[in-house]
């Protein structure tokens, strides 16, 4: 509704229609899966309390075949909501047409609901159905990383670049889930948190640029670091954080996901996923650095000479988002130590094995 009323661009009506159709279908499919799960439980044990339902299913698990098709429904429904490739096309055009606040809220927060559903409902309640689908999840995650990253490289509109970049980053979260390892799942949660911060920061900065210039076509911008030193520096940091620069939270999450996938027992040929993820990181660095060069460096067009940088009250939300990204990037245990126990329980339940080794080996002797 907000996109249809306050959206921008000539394609806002098309984007509104597409995002409505995709998200409605995804929610409907997920609802069918949840209703099917509810009905498969004996009448006397039916409940919407996830804790009680999980306890019942631990003692009286559903048939493996039943778990598989219900897990497939939940994967499809939740996957559409998170823009899992190839059901991702609603996201870039939607974010490009949405008002700034809407793009910040949806990309930063609401988009993670599907991942939460997979980790909170599908994996713990349907542990025997998950292994059959995890290789599929890994393959589709590679599609997110490579296809969306490649498309982002070809964009000339900053919001379309950020939208495709957001889709690509979701590939790391799905890879972490597919690993079904404590390290990988912990990394997936860190990626979710980091992506939420980066997405909100990036779309907020692009909204500021749009309000100042009236355009997000990168070839019409250039040299903006001189009149907008704070906004330019923040945009450069946001783009570099998104492509996994060390020191930011994204780096920690992506590294943990790579470690989890490398040692995954559920993924045959896991090295292919690791190689694809590295390729996705390289692609991300290419379009991030290209955007920084095009928007912030080079000659300053005459029409942008009079631009003014953000005032203090406008800087404050950007400073907070950057500070949290740096905090979790430099002291990741503030986040991982709280996430790891929950992911360990999830692995014990879903994989039916005890996790071996430290939960976060790279940080065992770190901050």
Q: What report would you give on this structure?
A:
This protein is mostly helical. The protein has one domain (2-363). 72% of the residues lie in helices and 0% in strands. It has helices at 2-6, 12-40, 50-59, 64-81, 90-97, 100-108, 113-125, 130-153, 158-179, 182-213, 229-242, 249-262, 270-296, 312-330, 333-351. α4 (64-81) packs antiparallel against α7 and α8 runs antiparallel to α9 (158-179). The chain is globular and about 70 Å long. The termini are far apart.
The largest β sheet comes out as: none
| Count of domains | 1
Mean pLDDT: 84
Which percent range describes the beta-strand content?
A: under 5%
Rounded radius of gyration (Å): 21 Å
Shape: globular
Low-confidence stretches: 353-367
- Number of helical segments with 4 or more residues: 15
Structural class, from helix and strand content?
mainly alpha
Order of helices and strands: HHHHHHHHHHHHHHH
Ends apart, CA distance between termini:
45 Å
């Amino acid at each position: 509704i907000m996109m249809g009323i306050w959206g921008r661009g000539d394609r806002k009506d098309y984007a509104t229609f597409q995002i409505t159709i995709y998200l409605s279908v995804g929610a409907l499919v997920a609802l069918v899966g949840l209703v099917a799960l509810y009905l498969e439980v004996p009448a006397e044990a039916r409940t919407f309390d996830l804790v009680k339902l999980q306890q019942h299913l631990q003692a009286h698990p559903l048939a493996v075949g039943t778990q598989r098709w219900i897990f497939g429904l939940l994967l499809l429904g939740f996957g559409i909501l998170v823009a899992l490739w190839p059901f991702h096309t609603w996201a870039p055009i939607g974010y490009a047409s949405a008002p700034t606040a809407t793009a910040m809220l949806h990309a930063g927060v609401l988009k993670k609901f599907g991942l939460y559903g997979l980790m909170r409902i599908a994996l713990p309640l349907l542990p025997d159905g998950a292994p059959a689908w995890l290789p599929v999840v890994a393959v589709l995650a590679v599609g997110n990383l490579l296809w969306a990253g490649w498309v982002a490289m070809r964009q000339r509109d900053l919001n379309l670049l950020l939208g495709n970049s957001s889709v690509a980053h979701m590939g790391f979260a799905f890879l972490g889930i597919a690993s079904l390892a404590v390290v990988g799942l912990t990394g997936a949660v860190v990626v979710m948190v980091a992506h939420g911060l980066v997405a909100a920061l990036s779309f907020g900065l692009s909204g500021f640029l749009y309000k100042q210039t009236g355009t997000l076509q990168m070839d019409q911008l250039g040299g903006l670091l001189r009149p907008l030193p704070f906004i330019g520096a923040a945009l450069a940091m946001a783009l570099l954080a998104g492509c996994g620069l060390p020191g930011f939270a994204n780096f920690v999450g992506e590294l943990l996901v790579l470690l989890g996938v490398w040692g995954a027992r559920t993924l045959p040929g896991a090295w292919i996923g690791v190689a694809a993820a590295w390729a996705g990181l390289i692609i991300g660095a290419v379009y991030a650095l290209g955007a920084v060069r095009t928007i912030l460096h080079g000659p300053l067009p005459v029409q942008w000479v009079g631009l003014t940088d953000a005032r203090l009250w406008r800087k404050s939300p950007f400073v907070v988002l950057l500070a949290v990204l740096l905090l979790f990037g430099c002291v990741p245990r503030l986040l991982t130590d709280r996430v790891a126990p929950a992911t360990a329980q999830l692995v014990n339940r879903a994989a039916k094995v005890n996790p071996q080794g430290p939960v976060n080996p790279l940080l065992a002797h770190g901050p």
